Amino acid sequence: MGVFTLNSTQMLRRILSALLVSLIPSVISLISLEVFPKAALSEPSAASVQTKVKVPGSMSYKPFNTNRYLKVPPNFSISVYARINQARFMAVAPNGDLLVSQPSSGKVLIVRPNGSKDPIISNFVVGLRKPHDIVFHTIDKTTYVYISETHQINRFTYKSGDLIGKNRQIVVTGLPDSSTRELKGAYGHELKNIALDSNHKLYVSIASTCNACKEDTVSYPRRGAIYQYNANGTNQRLFAQGLRNAEGLAFVPGTNDLWVSVNNRDNIAYPFKDSTGNYGKVISSYVDNHPPDEFTRVRDGGNYGWPFCNPNPDTSTGYYNMPFDRDYQFNADGGVNCNAMDRIFKGILAHSAPLGLTFLQNTNFPSLYSNGVVMALHGSWNRQKKTGYKIIYLSWNSKNKLPQSQIDLVSGWLVPQTQEVWGRPVDMVVDRQGNLFISDDYSGTIYKLSYTR
User: Cα(432)–Cα(437) distance, rounded to whole angstroms?
Assistant: First the structure.
């Protein structure tokens, strides 16, 4: 009897022990969900919910004279915040005001919240030559707002609550634009974009005058290039070249890694001597997808190929780390070594026209998206089937410091069934409350994308 009791006790202990071991993963899982909410363990959701754009009555004129819908991720809403004709690049001031460039009028506007009423819009700076990019930057406790014109870069001192630009300094002069004598009034991409790094270096994108041409590669200053200056405009030097039209310039937060979004060339000739017989011809089916637009890190001394070498997405690596093909028009004989060019880290479907570029790290945008970057695709003009017209999100690999998966964050300005276009996004900024403002120069709108949960 005693032996039987002992064996029963041992067996009971073994059963309880096995049961406890089997429960441990569930207990750990419950603890993890308590400490790390489910959302934090999930992947960011793509635009999937057809959402009616909320429009104040005072702003319901074209294209909002009819109901408009955009696709956004679950638990987001989107509304019209302000109407500004041909609104381009933006910046959020330290006090939360929104600055918006309006190249067509020569103005930078300031947009201020006004409680439940429409925001108050007034002139921050007027009389500029096609102002475009806007960057706030602090040096030795003085905050400046840098504003680019086509031919120069300005900075104004800024104190919280300022409603107009003060103490203007012209820090960079002599940038090429349509007034440059040798160009005879023709400059296809004269608007300038800028960025400043943590070492107080100023970067200026001088885009190409053309679709593709050799003249820009031997001009002074070089075009299709990025120049670096001290923050006060001294010590100009060529930083990188071979970038046809780098519109978005931004540093990965916490680093001095400069990334750019680039509009690549159009009407490329077929570069391969193969059985198709298309060598040297401009074939619509090839032009539609070649060469990709670009999102890439820019290094000091780098050359990114334009106009001699074009990234090729039709290899095993797809749109990542693309090798180059010789450009038929300018490099058919291989006089320029494409293997010596800096590869493009991430391609964007050709003719999408990427413009504004905003990293979300260190912002108050929802944490699920806080380790990534958003980019505005302005949209194609010369593709058989239109593409772009949306905001994309790329998650960020913190280990190799490179972009990963790409999803749509906001889409719907292009109606697929009819190919109607009613909006073209340009730029995005995040305010202190975590809302994403989006400018649209086609409909003249500033949208507000808000997390609702």
Answer: 11
**pTM recorded for the entire structure:** 0.90
CATH number of the domain located at residue range(s) 47-451 in this protein = 2.120.10.30
Taking only Cα atoms into account, the Rg of the chain, rounded to an integer number of angstroms, comes to 26
User: Do β-strands 117-125 and 354-359 pair in parallel, antiparallel, or remain unpaired?
Assistant: unpaired
**In this structure, what DSSP letter does residue 368 have?**
G
DSSP assignment letter at 184? T
Distance CA(375)–CA(248), nearest Å, equals 8
Residue by residue, pLDDT tens for the chain (453 residues) are: 344 344 554 544 554 455 444 443 443 333 333 333 333 347 899 999 999 999 999 999 999 999 999 999 999 999 999 999 999 999 999 999 999 999 999 999 999 999 999 999 999 999 999 999 999 999 999 999 999 999 999 999 999 999 999 999 999 999 999 999 999 999 999 999 999 999 999 999 999 999 999 999 999 999 999 999 999 999 999 999 999 999 999 999 999 999 999 999 999 999 999 999 999 999 999 999 999 999 999 999 999 999 999 999 999 999 999 999 999 999 999 999 999 999 999 999 999 999 999 999 999 999 999 999 999 999 999 899 999 999 999 999 988 999 999 999 999 999 999 999 999 999 999 999 999 999 999 999 999 999 998
What residue spans define the domains of the chain?
Answer: 1-36, 47-451
Residue length, the chain? 453
